[in-house]
Amino acid sequence: MKYFFTFTVVLLSQLIIAQNETSKDTIKTAELKEVVVGSKKKSIDQRADRTIFDFSEQSHLNSGSLMEGLKKLPGLIVSDVAGMMYQGKQLEVFMDTRPLNIYSNELTSYLESLPANSIEKVEIITHPGAEFPATSGGAIINIITSKNAKKYLSATYSNGYSYTKYDQSRHRLNNSLLLNSKNKWFGWQIQAGQNYNEGYQRTNFQNENIVLSKNVSNRINRFYFFKTGLKFDFKKDRLLVNYDFSTSNNNALVDASGVGFQSSDKSNNELDRNDVAINYQKRFTDKSKKLDFRFNANSVKNDFELMNRTSGNSVLDNGFNQLFYQFKTDYSQDLSILDKTKFSSGILADKLEFEALNLGVTNLDYQRTTLSAYSEFQTSYNKFDFILGTRLESYSITGNTDSAKLIPFKQTRFFPNATLQYNIIPQVFVNANYNKKISLPNTSALNPNNTSYQNPNVSIFGNPNLEPTIFDNYEVKISAFEYFFVSYSRSDANNQVMNRIIADGSGAASISENIPQITIHNFNFGLPIPYMLFTKGLKETLKFDFNPDEINFLYLYVGHQKHILPDVESKGLWFFNAMSQIVLPSKIKFTANYNTSSTGGNYYYFENRVPFSHQFDVTFAKKFLDNNLSVSLYCNDIFNTNEQGFNALGTNLIYESKNDSRRIGLSLNYKIPTKNKLAKEEGIILNNDKKDDQPAIGN
């Protein structure tokens, strides 16, 4: 009852403060954003709590699928066995500022199916403040699909095609169309698209010299998405309404063999996702004062079936239904304290209902409720910026399996965060961050059923009795002129949820379990090198006033990760990325991207036998028709070197995997020009993030 009282007090305090229109001398920082609407987009925008990558103007990122673009981001790793991490931090995936709420194979399939040229930008929030749920764990990746609305009707058409040949020809094709408009009553936006994807994968499990399982999969994935947005303006206030729908139908033919068996199987995986969001934004005469109310609901339905092609018998018939509801309110206001101060507070309530089905029978019924409230201060004094916040969260987790009740989890705790930044000169700063977070087991890790593939020697399943993970995250970072940075971070995790491969009788099993303690050390370094440095020298280069996104340059990234686990002799891993941009004659932009890593280090409970994401990609891009038409020709993994190979620590098992990563493709994006000269860009409809209304600390 006392926690319910706390939430009520915070909500009432927001409403009371919001109605207080006493005039004060405030720093109206929101207006600064409007002055620079016409400025050139930055390829990379480094901020105190996040790094923003612009996808819309970078041909090497927006050619192909979204997953292919994400893998090219320096410091981001996508692995079959370890999921998605950025600079050593496990990522919680959001889309348009809302949790996506799909995981594992379903998430991978979703990101592989979504065209990269339908994405505006990707934010990686490395230090989620108090306004973000503490359940965000180590970091958040926020994928922004929204585009700016325009007065009068405007349209953008995007298309992509790619080709591979691994024993046979395979094709991928995507199309999408974005329509938007605005009149004096409301603005609207519709984005729809499809993706057809033929794919190949070879996977091996072996025990020393004995092959337990060798699988060759031929996949055909069909994906369709539909996104809508409405914006109504009421003087200073506005109402945003969004509805998103996506559906996928994925089929695979799998030929498998191993000790004691040989089979030919067919799988079908269907997933439907619906998402509704309503956001009311209350604005005041004091433009620094903002009050937002948001309701979000989404549902996910998945059906997975595996059949033997020879006998026609069903091997697996699993599925799940998931419902998620969330209500949140946020209030922010500038205060006349020190040089400039911003106060934020808010409350959140959400509920997750998850039902796992095996042969139509429910074998996991899981419910989770979260209530939370937060307050945060951001202030500046001379060359120092400070952020101090705290979040109170209360969890209630209950449920049943087909044989017993889950162990109830009820807990309430505080999650503090703090940032100290010293601005040496404009755009050059050093900052230190700390935050405490929690990660609740996702539904994929909890699901006791296999929703991917299994054979007599290999099985995959979750654990309904997993407990939450508590993180303490620390980081120190030096950043200069958006592109150069050096950072060191450390994460201490208790009860880390971990995917492991274990020996299971004469075979292997992939399981999820809690690890009592893990510490992750990360060192990261990024450096841009303009090629004019070699032709004109340092002194002349420093005299130039240039846009880094429009010159010839080389960007180098180096990262080092070390995972310290109990009963494991820890060895670190080095990660390397080099991206070169050269502007050729006729304004053709050539981009080359190279990724690799060292070997022999432990990545959680896996020792990599081959480098992570070892591949070399090239892209040629040019704009036509007054820059309205962008055309890109690309080739990914030219030397066909991208594969995965791990030793499962604590066993003598070896896991190997190879996809059809060598791919040549063509991508185009056509902004159909309007004939009305009065047309101008308005605010984003499909998404609105109040963070975007404020300049970055230190900038």
Could you walk me through the main structural features you see in this protein, from its secondary elements to its overall organization?
By secondary structure, the chain is mostly beta strands. The strands form three sheets. The chain has a 22-stranded antiparallel beta barrel. Strands 1, 2, 3, 4, 5, 6, 7 and 8 form an eight-stranded mixed β-sheet that branches. It has a two-stranded antiparallel sheet with strand order 9-37. A hairpin with a 2-residue loop joins strand 5 and strand 6. The radius of gyration is 25 Å and the shape is globular.
Which structural traits does this protein have?
7 helices, disordered N terminus, 22-stranded antiparallel beta barrel, 699 residues
- Per the principal axes of the C-alpha atoms, what is the gross shape? globular
Structural class: mainly beta
Low-confidence residue ranges: 1-39, 688-699
DSSP strand count = 37
Rg of Cα set: 25 Å
| Main sheet record | 22 strands, antiparallel, barrel
Number of helices: 7
C-alpha end-to-end distance: 43 Å
Question: What is this entry, summarized?
Answer:
Helices cover 8% and strands 61% of the residues. It is mainly β and 699 residues long.
